[in-house]
Specification:
Layout lengths: L6 E5 L4 E5 L57 E2 L11 E7 L3 E8 L5 E10 L2 E7 L12 E9 L2 E9 L2
Amino acid sequence: GYNSGDPIWTGTQTSWQEQHYTFSSSGNINLCWRFGSDYMITYEGYYFDDILIGVQSGFNAVEEEVSGPPAVSSYQFNLAPAYPNPVQGRAIIAYSVGTEGPVSLKIYDLTGREITTLVNQIQSPGNYRIEWDGRDNHGSMVSSGTYFYRMTSGSFSDGKKLVVVR
């Protein structure tokens, strides 16, 4: 288990920090985990390591020593549904990039004609959000209707539907 002053790691998927806590031998110790979710992005999950909770009697435990923060898995490619959808003004499109490389995110009309390019650049692995203001490549507002947006990067390609109402 932890001795008083032993390091404890806390943080997010990409940023871990070492923290120290002092425990007394009397009184209660309350452990609390706070979970959150963002339906727009798919994350790896939660990591728990070296947790030992003892009771008054009859408790035996096997511990595995791990030094430093847990390993962080790589990001995966993902294209989330636009929000809001249908859209009247602006839409947010969230996506994840799995490996560094060229990323393209474009909007098309029902005939397959390119309406606008939202992303066309090399991006590092991570989570991103882009806002579409409902305009085409010439700066004109698009009319009401059904549109599609497609993200491509390397061998990854995914598309989703977006409805515009004016």
